[in-house]
Amino acid sequence: MSPALLLLVACDRGFSDPDRAFAAPIEGPPTYATTIVAPTTLGVVDTSRTDVHGTPIGVGCATCHGPDPSQAWAATPGEPFHTGVSLRHGNNTCDHCHDPADRTRLHLADGTSIEMGAAIQLCAQCHGKQYTNYQHGAHGGMNGYWDLRQGPRTRNHCVVCHAPHDPAIPVVSPVLPPHDRYLEPPHDHL
Fold first, then answer.
1. How many domains are contained in the chain?
2. Looking at residue 26, what is its pLDDT?
3. Model confidence over 7-25: pLDDT tens digits?
4. How far apart are CA 32 and CA 119, in angstroms?
5. Does any domain span residue 147?
6. 172 is a domain residue
7. Which DSSP helix (H) or strand (E) runs through 154?
8. Alpha-carbon distance 68 to 74, whole Å?
9. Alpha-carbon torsion 48, 54, 60, 63, what sign?
10. pTM value?
11. Would residue 14 count as lying in a domain?
12. Owning domain of residue 106
């Protein structure tokens, strides 16, 4: 049957009737939660020191930049400690994202102060297309179930893959392609 004829038959059977009542949504079990995996390094700056495994030892930003800027002993970017932080994120400065009144927090474009863990809201303001893709599962990696009625899901926070101060993904060299043992000539075994 041709596609045009099939469409005509479908229309003739009432499938295109705009007044047709649809069945009620299927009631199912309660939906499971989506967990956002955020690194423990949010609000931490790496130092030049490493632990026994060679991992940089981080110092919490709140160590120097507490909620009260008048009590912070190193509240100004550019101190010797910050020499390892290079900002390559458009034309942004520290104050575009970090709350100037409380460096342990971030702020949205409208000035609303948010916690470090809510940085996805901040990222979404400028990176709307990526955030839309993230919401639909096409960006950010996902493990678990697409249908949350079946089970839980985990997603990655933006900063799992993108360093906040230098978010570009580094250029990598591709690895060799996988070998398909069925397409390769058989090996003679004695």
1. 1
2. 58
3. 444 444 445 556 666 556 5
4. 23
5. yes
6. no
7. strand 153-156
8. 12
9. negative
10. 0.62
11. no
12. 28-161
